[in-house]
Amino acid sequence: MLTFDFMRHAFVASTFIAITCGLIGVFVVARNMSFLAHTLSEIGFAGASFGVFMGIAPLNGMLLFTLLSSITIGQMSAKESRREASISAISSLFVGLGILFLSLSNRNASYATNILFGSIIGISLADVYQLIILSGVIMLGLLLFYRYLVFDSYDPIGAQAQGLKTNLLSIYFLILLAVSVSIAAQIVGSLLVFILVTIPAFIAKYFAKSVPGMLVIAVGAALLGVWLGLWFGYLTNWPVTFFIAIIEFGFYFVALVYHRSLSR
Amino acid sequence: MTELVNAQHLGLAFSNHQVLKDLSFTIERGSMTSLIGPNGVGKTTLVRLLIGNLQPTEGQLVINPDRQHLNIGYVPQFRNLEAEYPLSIRSFVSLNQLDRRLPWKTRKERQALDQILAQTHLTSLQKTTVGNASGGEKQKAYLAQALISKPDLLILDESTASLDIETKEEVMALVAELNREYDLTVIFVTHDLELARKYTDHYLFLKHDQYEAGPMTQLDPNLELD
Ligand SMILES: Nc1ncnc2c1ncn2[C@@H]1O[C@H](COP(=O)(O)OP(=O)(O)OP(=O)(O)O)[C@@H](O)[C@H]1O
Ligand SMILES: [Mg+2]
Fold this sequence. Notes:
The structure holds two protein chains of two kinds. Chain A is an all-alpha fold. Chain A has 13 helices and no strands. In chain B, strand 1 and strand 2 (18-28) form a beta hairpin. By secondary structure, chain B is α/β, with parallel strands linked by helices. The complex binds adenosine-5'-triphosphate and magnesium ion (MG). Chain B: This is ABC transporter family protein.
């Protein structure tokens, strides 16, 4: 299948995105932020529609919106108790805006479908480069502050007790998350970023007791999902997103059963 | 002995009420001080001032007057780790190894980890997840995590409160040993006067409108808290 350019592009881009999302997802789950990740991708949907409306690339519109809002959210809800409420409010606003932008832009419905459900097949070489660079930025961002992020994610009280700047770390992490969500949406769509960002990390939590262990498993689960998804999509012509979704669901189900059987 | 902490007329008020008022005391390097007093009197608040988490609203608090680098290890009173918490005790303790940036641990770091786990009697439990550990084991893991950064000042906020007598003694004996061997300065927040008398040499007794400070030998032998 890799003899076709469009499949090669999809394969390379998906590989980088899956690695990035597997990594970031472990932190998202540790920080109890999967709901927030979902909201960011809805904001991304609004950003992409805005991009379509303005005639700029949907990915750039998405980056613009998610980055701006991640900083706002970071400041609005430093207090955990306020987080859920402000997140639901923000998310309703942005989905509404997304619908508005799409209808104003007079594009056909397939645009909306692509943004919501993903469209990795057929992306251009320039898009591939952009996605690789963005993935690289996220991975570098994680690497540079790895130990601080791990401490703050897995033991915020301890991290604060040792004098870490936990508020700054939160905002830093939200920025990385915003970019991750935007690129994940390129494969699985903004409605389903859960598939790549949180499910692999939840799977990893069942199998590993160390952070590096969880990172490896999450990346592995994400990679297997997108590779097999692309392959099945190629064979059947059914949506890639559908295959990735059922594969990740399958992994999660197996992990859950395994975990249950251990703790019984 | 040199001073490590010097408080002059220290006061702290939250927006609506005054918690600490006109508090003057010193803590010497290498000493072990018990911080005692009834619930809600301001012990944890004082600790938060010491670690720089709060700023005094009155007076001044000088920490480490000779301005060498001071590393504080603080074991907070509360942690909220759920039963599903995934990290092993070993991974949890290693969270505080922050001297280097990159993810992978050096051999030296792994050895330091082994050593602290042995000292806190956690070696055989290191693969247990913190979520599955008992209350006492958790407390020892918190202590080990604070110790792994080789602090000069260790602050324990009621770390022994939920432990049985044997584990209490074990934890305090370890802290006392580190105090002797490495000149670790210790502030021990507690309601346990027996333990305070046995292991610490100074006390700071906060009451609602006043306070007492001095060597342990001067603490009223008939005193009972709460
Ligand atoms: N952030 C805050 N805002 C307002 N009041 C606070 C805050 N933190 C603590 N207080 C109040 O300050 C007082 C002292 O609290 P602190 O936690 O220091 O008590 P403590 O001596 O540690 O008590 P305990 O023995 O129960 O741990 C309490 O009345 C508490 O309600
Ligand atoms: Mg307290």
